[in-house]
Amino acid sequence: MKKISIPILVALLAGWCYATDTIFFGPRNLRVSEEGEFSWVDMTPEPQEFDTQWAYRLYPDDKKLTGRGVTVAVADSGISSHVEFNGKHIQGQDFTLSPSIADLKNHGTGVAGIIGARGVRFTGLAPEASLIVYKIDDGSRMIAPQAITTAVNTLVQYNEQNPQKRVSVLNLSYGVLPGGSAQLTAALERAYEAGIVIVCPAGNVGYPGVHYPASLGFTIAVGALSSDLTSAYANSSYGPQIDFIAPGDRVYTTDSDGEYTLMSGTSAAAGFVSAMAALAVEGLKNKLGRYPTPEEVKNALKAAAYRVEGIDLQRQGNGFIDVKKLEQQLGAR
């Protein structure tokens, strides 16, 4: 057996390279130069590039339906001025104790962008739809059912006073589990009977149990699709009440500070479905010569949807709504 000298043995046990062309026993993240100098190697994996526009690439650029002649109400945390809303017809009313409809939570502005951004950096799904913003959340995360009830009743009254310019879609960014409000349920039923399509997020807890009021039979409950396109967003709540799935994972949209942000959750997904409902209203209105009923709108969306392979039915319901298929069935030109 060949003897190893003490200096070499000490060097080997210490993890140092004694011969520059033989064996290195040191940590993997050390580099040895030709001169025998050691330096650390950054082993941090390179972050994968993220396509911030992934959600909008799921919808065609050459849509024939754009939301023209349709008004969508966004009941949320308000809205702030943004270049993506310049020139749009936006009305607003505050149902909180805050002094204005300005968005202090950076939520309502994002949902409004998904629905109706005009196309400076991205285009909302219904860019020609008009918006009415009902502020029900002052940013404190304490949304009073009474405020929402008053907002919904005001919306019904608005339609009674403006039958030719009525609101056809309500995007209600609100959900609680468990619970509910009898007064709010009654107001929402009146809105549905008055011809308003009501779209709600399923919730963001990632467990079984669709939040109220998405759990009501006459509302449209929306789950969130992950950016990998093969799974539901991890925090998306689910259950048999889910009607559709839409993008809800780091969705690029408008920020309340006038810039842009990435928004995740079923509220973002609900914004896409509310916009799709606006497109359906536009198409059906042109086809029928009248405002469609909420049931007619939902049936049109169901007929245009397809199931996403690999996602459980309780997470996607009827699936993802295909714009081209919707346009074909409505004869949009």
Tell me the strand order in the biggest sheet.
4-5-3-6-7-8-9
Mean pLDDT: 90
CATH topology of the largest domain: Rossmann fold
Helix-strand topology string: HEEEEHEHEHEEEEEHHEHEH
DSSP strand tally: 13
Shape: globular
CATH architecture term of the largest domain: 3-Layer(aba) Sandwich
Question: How many domains in all?
Answer: 2
CATH homology superfamily name of the largest domain: Peptidase S8/S53 domain
Roughly what fraction of the amino acids lie in strands?
A: 15-25%
Report on this structure.
The protein is of the alpha/beta class. It folds into two domains: 6-40, no CATH class; 56-330, Peptidase S8/S53 domain (Rossmann fold). It has helices at 6-13, 108-116, 145-161, 182-193, 266-288, 294-303, 313-316, 323-330, and strands spanning 30-32, 38-40, 71-76, 90-94, 130-135, 167-172, 197-201, 220-225, 242-247, 251-254, 260-263, 305-306, 320-321. The chain has a seven-stranded parallel sheet with strand order 4-5-3-6-7-8-9, with helices on both faces. It has a two-stranded antiparallel sheet with strand order 1-2. A two-stranded antiparallel ribbon has the order 10-11. Helix 2 packs parallel to helix 5 (266-288). It is globular.
Write the layout of secondary structure elements.
Blueprint: H1 6-13, E1 30-32, E2 38-40, E3 71-76, E4 90-94, H2 108-116, E5 130-135, H3 145-161, E6 167-172, H4 182-193, E7 197-201, E8 220-225, E9 242-247, E10 251-254, E11 260-263, H5 266-288, H6 294-303, E12 305-306, H7 313-316, E13 320-321, H8 323-330
Parallel strand pairs: 3-5, 3-6, 4-5, 6-7, 7-8, 8-9
Antiparallel strand pairs: 1-2, 10-11, 12-13
